[in-house]
Structures are given as structure tokens and as C-alpha cells.
Design a protein that fits this description.
52% of the residues lie in helices and 11% in strands. The protein has 25 helices and eleven strands.
């Protein structure tokens, strides 16, 4: 194959580079091979600007040709002249596509082996391995790219707009018979990627996204950038459709580069890039998910909420359960005490509220686990799942005791620690969780009094006796995968005792560490260890010796 490899989605969306790097059309012997392959596509339908061949059925070919022509006319009204012609080949045969993909001039993305594209002098050819149902979205996305490419010869100047617009139109189910497009939901694959990046906290800032060069945009994180571009363009098209229509019609005329495009947006919307980002984030919060898609998770969780009939609220604490009204009220009261304690200790809160759902229905809990994708650790008595959709945490608990205050102490602390120090490793996250759990419950005055749990200390002493304790240097460097491997509980117990030692033997140092977290000055494991060894005036071997001496003398 010649030319750059094109990154396409399974629905036939090719990247920016495909349209800008004119790959050679099938030549010589390969051209003859392609003509021979076309004989295996008996169903052909042609309109003024779109030709469709298919091995599916004559009805499908005719429907796609009519839809393609409507799409052609749709984009011709919004942009400058589209290309002369577009050919779509819809096939069910895997062997057909495999043979096409070998031909010279065809480019494919290895991750999506059922889509191929070639750019000829005056028209594009696209082959899609497709099921029986027509794929209208692929037509809309590709024709948008073609129209943009012909409207403005170098759309690499504004990759966010080029990809965002194409994906916006590709998100539509289809144009109706009158040529009208009705779009409410962003494409679910890209919407899912956007939400995943949002949960990870690694979205690119909007000012950065809008000023990326094509090379930066097409980096390893290009899927994330495309998802963000789609969501931003969805915002502009939804809330500022007339302005976007003007922008599209002026591309290549008086809007000749990205700076002019952004200047037009800022002038038209009467804001700067920071203001655009603020409006965009507001749009994201109310962004709908396509019904039936994974992104409808929040809606599905809201439906499941009806299966937790007993609700109780106390300040920022919301508790729902199927275990009785009194259970919910008692646990909401305790949750509020936890929330207030951690808010004061860490100096900030992970949102304005916190919801916990309790059930003893294992089928219901397993349904929630599957829906949220929450990891379940083998050998753990406590069963917990969580969702962070909507800007705050919803926690789902299968309680192993009543009341189940210890789970609140442990799990709520995780949310606060990961808020103030997202780069913390598990010895911090789980060690602090186990430390706070050691209090068993908050007292009525909101005071927490942690003390070593008997089983934790007994296990720790036994590991020490058998010389099976992990060296401290290894413990504080374990990643999450390694931390949870092996015999469950060993790393937990050591982290608990080490964190207990730090909190009880060096309270001033730890109070300052929490302050540093709150101020964003310490954000990763290396910085935590550097702070502790400096503040305590101990290297790790000395620190290990001191914490062992302290822990072995404890009386649970």
C-alpha cells in the first residue's frame, strides 16, 4: 500500500490525513483486479453525484444512493463546491474486502479492518464491509470531509473544526426524505471516549485543543482529540447554529486560517477562549447520550434508583437503600459526619454531594457492577461499585454488616484522597482508607478515633515473624495492578500500619502533607516520598526501621 495509513472508525470515518495526502488510485494490474472484484457486487444504483454498489440487495443500494444524493445536496448548500463524485461500495463479504485492502492505493487503519478508502483525481471511492442495514452515518461523515476539503484546500489549519464537523454529521442517523437532518446525540463511540477522558481527568483544555497543529492533533491521543472536537462542535451547532452556518460558508474565502476562524467565533459570540470553554463545559453537563448506548449509563442508573425505595438526606449526604427507612436515615447521618470530617481534614470536597446506595440484592448489585465497570477484588468481604457521572460520586454497596459504618469511612476517604492527590499510589490510597476504617465509626460529635484493627495487626505481626513483609521501598512503589496481586491483604495490612505510624507518630508532618495536597503542591508519589523523608529527616531505610518498631509494639 502507498500513502499514509488512514485512521478510520468502524463506520467509515477517515482521518484528516487521508484527504490531504492524495494516495495513488489503483493502477495497472491492480486496477484490473478491482474491476474484476466489482463484478461480485451485482447491485448498482446511481444518482447525479453518488454511485453505490453492493452485494447486499438492490433495495439497499438504491436507498443508499438516494440518501447519498440528499447528503450531497445538503452539504453543497453549506460549503463551497463538493467533489465531482463519490462512490460507495457496501459489502457483506469479508473476503471481498480483504482482497480490496491489498490493492495499491488503498489505505486502511489496522484497528478497523472493515473500512477502506482511495482518493482519485476527481472523486473518492470507499469500501465498507457492512451488515444488511444501510450505513447512512458513514455517508454523511465522508461527504462532509470531501466538501470541507474542496471548500478549503488545507483544512489541516484547523483540525478541530475539520474533524469535529465531520463527526458531528456522521453522528446523525440519516437525512429524512426532505433532506432535513435531526441530530440530538453525539456519536456514541466518541461520546464514550470523551466521558472516559473526562473521568480520567486528562481532557485537553479547550484553548489548547483549538490551537493545536495538525501534527499535535494526530498524535497518539488523536481519538481523544477527535472526541473533544466532536463535543465542542456539537455545542456550537446546537447552541449557535446560525453562527456556525456563516462560518462554514466563509471558509476559504475571508476565513483562511485557524486564527481567523477563532477570531470570528470570539467576535460573533462576544467572548474569549476562556469564555468559550466555560460555555462548553455547561453544555457538556447537559449533553444527552444516545438511547441504548453505553453512555446512557447515567440514565440507566437513574432508572435503577427506583429499586432503592428508602431515601434519606442529611446535608450533602444522600443515602438510598432497599433495607428500610431507618437503615437509610442512620447511614445518611453517619455519612454526613464522614463528609464533614474529611472536608475539614483535606480542605476541599470532591463535589457538592455524595450518594450511597445500599442493597443486599446480589443480582441488582451485579447489574450495577456490570453497568459501571467497577473492578471487584477477589477475596474481599466488602462489595463496592462506583460511578462518577454527573460531576459527583455515586457509590453502591453490598453491606456485610449492619450498621456498615466502616465501609463509609474507608470508601469516602478514597474519594477525598484521589481528589487532592490524583497521582497517589495504593499505599497512600488504601493505607489511608484502612487507617480511617480503623475508627469503626464517627462519634456523634464528628470525631474519629482510629486504632489498629485486631486482624490487621495480627496479620502484620505474623508476616514479620515469617520474614514475609515487603521492604518499605517496594511497598511505596507498587502500582495498582501489583498491589492487588498475590495473597490478598498483605500489602493492605502493611500500608495500614505504615500510614497509622505516620499519622500517630508524626501528626504535624501529616497535617502539613494534607495542606500541601490541598494547595496542589504535591501531586504524585515521588513528591510525597520526598516530602516525608525531608520533613522527618529520615531516609527510607531509617523510616522503615522506625515504623516497624512502632507497629510491633502496638496493642490493638
Amino acid at each position: 500500500m502507498q500513502g499514509n495509513r488512514i485512521r478510520m472508525t468502524i463506520l467509515g470515518i477517515c482521518t484528516l490525513g487521508a484527504l490531504l495526502t492524495a494516495t495513488s488510485p489503483c493502477a495497472g494490474q491492480d486496477r484490473e483486479k478491482f474491476r474484476a472484484l466489482l463484478q461480485r457486487l451485482p447491485h448498482k444504483s446511481e444518482e447525479a453525484h453518488v454511485l453505490v454498489r453492493s452485494d447486499v440487495s438492490a433495495e439497499v443500494a438504491a436507498d443508499l444512493a438516494r440518501h447519498g444524493e440528499r447528503a450531497w445536496q445538503f452539504f453543497a448548500k453549506r460549503f463551497a463546491l463538493p467533489p465531482n463524485r463519490m462512490e460507495f461500495f457496501y459489502v457483506r463479504s469479508e473476503s471481498f474486502y480483504a482482497e480490496v485492502a491489498k490493492l495499491e492505493g488503498w489505505t486502511v487503519y489496522p484497528g478497523y479492518p472493515n473500512v477502506g478508502f482511495v482518493w482519485d483525481k476527481d472523486h473518492g471511492k470507499m469500501v465498507l464491509q457492512t451488515p444488511n442495514e444501510p450505513n447512512y452515518g458513514a455517508q454523511l461523515g465522508e461527504l462532509c470531509r470531501q466538501a470541507l476539503f474542496c471548500s478549503y484546500q488545507n483544512p489541516r489549519d484547523f483540525p478541530w473544526l475539520f474533524e469535529g464537523l465531520a463527526l458531528y454529521y456522521q453522528s446523525a442517523d440519516r437525512l429524512d426524505a426532505s433532506g432535513k437532518l435531526i441530530l440530538r446525540h453525539p456519536h456514541p463511540d466518541y461520546h464514550r471516549e470523551f466521558r472516559a477522558a473526562e473521568r480520567r481527568g486528562d481532557l485537553v483544555s479547550l484553548p489548547r485543543l483549538l490551537t493545536m497543529s495538525a501534527k499535535e492533533f494526530d498524535a497518539d491521543t488523536s481519538l481523544k482529540q477527535r472526541a473533544q472536537s466532536l463535543i465542542f462542535v456539537h455545542h456550537l451547532m446546537t447552541d449557535h447554529g446560525e453562527i456556525m452556518q456563516q462560518l462554514c460558508q466563509r471558509l476559504g474565502k475571508d476565513l483562511k486560517n485557524n486564527e481567523e476562524v477563532l477570531s470570528f467565533l470570539k467576535d460573533s459570540l462576544k467572548t474569549d477562549l476562556a469564555g468559550l470553554e466555560k460555555r462548553h463545559l455547561a453544555h457538556v453537563k447537559k449533553l444527552p447520550a444516545q438511547e441504548g448506548s453505553d453512555l446512557a449509563k447515567l440514565d440507566r442508573l437513574d432508572v435503577l434508583k427506583k429499586r432503592f425505595p428508602h431515601a434519606a438526606k442529611d446535608g450533602p449526604a444522600y443515602v438510598y437503600s432497599d433495607l428500610g427507612k431507618e437503615f437509610s436515615q442512620v447511614h445518611a447521618k453517619h455519612l454526613k459526619l464522614c463528609w464533614n470530617y474529611f472536608a475539614k481534614l483535606f480542605g476541599q470536597t470532591p463535589g457538592d454531594k455524595f450518594e450511597i446506595y445500599y442493597t443486599r440484592n446480589e443480582d441488582l448489585f451485579n447489574e450495577i457492577v456490570k453497568l459501571t465497570g467497577s473492578r471487584q477484588l477477589p477475596g474481599v468481604v466488602r462489595k463496592v461499585a462506583a460511578s462518577f457521572e454527573g460531576g459527583y460520586c455515586r457509590m453502591y454497596i453490598l453491606p456485610y454488616q449492619n450498621p456498615d459504618y466502616e465501609t463509609q469511612l474507608h470508601e469516602v476517604s478514597h474519594i477525598f484522597v484521589q481528589k487532592v492527590c490524583p497521582g497517589a499510589l495504593p499505599w497512600v490510597v488504601e493505607g489511608s482508607g484502612m487507617y480511617f476504617e480503623c475508627a469503626l465509626k464517627m462519634d456523634k460529635n464528628g470525631v474519629m478515633r482510629p486504632r489498629p484493627l485486631g486482624y490487621t495487626h495480627t496479620s502484620f505481626v505474623e508476616l514479620h515473624r515469617k520474614e514475609k513483609l515487603l521492604p518499605l521501598k517496594k511497598l511505596v512503589e507498587l502500582d495498582y495492578t501489583t498491589f492487588y496481586q498475590g495473597e490478598f491483604g498483605n500489602a493492605y495490612n502493611q500500608s495500614t500500619l505504615f500510614f497509622y505510624y505516620l499519622m500517630r507518630a508524626h501528626p504535624k508532618v501529616m497535617t502539613e502533607l494534607f495542606a500541601q495536597w490541598n494547595q496542589g503542591r504535591i501531586q504524585n508519589n515521588g513528591a510525597i516520598l520526598q516530602y516525608l523523608t525531608s520533613a522527618l529527616k529520615m531516609d527510607l531505610p531509617t523510616l522503615e526501621k522506625r515504623y516497624l518498631e512502632y507497629s510491633l509494639k502496638l496493642t490493638p
